[in-house]
Design a protein that fits this description.
With 92 residues, this protein is an alpha+beta fold. The protein is built from two helices and five strands.
């Protein structure tokens, strides 16, 4: 399955992309994460199971002193997407 996500909130300049990458790697999620000029973070992710995808969403929905995810917007979602990525990367 594949999802294209936009993360809204205080998510830039606070190591959020690194946290997203670590969560993805630990769950076997592949794709990429990058900052956008408008302050949001964009994620394209794919996983082999729905459980891995849902666990990934839970881990990246952070609300602590530095990082505060207001919401995760799902732009696209497909359960039948062909795998495209081999690993998860931070894009610049």
């Amino acid at each position: 399955m594949r999802a294209h996500l936009l993360v809204h909130g205080n998510v830039q300049g606070v190591n959020y992309r690194w946290i997203v990458q670590e969560a993805a790697k630990s769950l076997g999620v592949r794709g990429w994460v990058r900052n956008l000029d408008d302050g949001k973070v964009e994620i394209l992710c794919e996983s082999d199971t729905e459980k891995a995808y849902r666990d990934f969403l839970k881990r990246i929905e952070i609300k602590d002193k530095l990082r505060h995810v207001e919401r995760i917007e799902i732009l696209e979602f497909s359960k039948k997407a062909e795998p495209e990525f081999k690993y998860f990367a931070i894009e610049y």
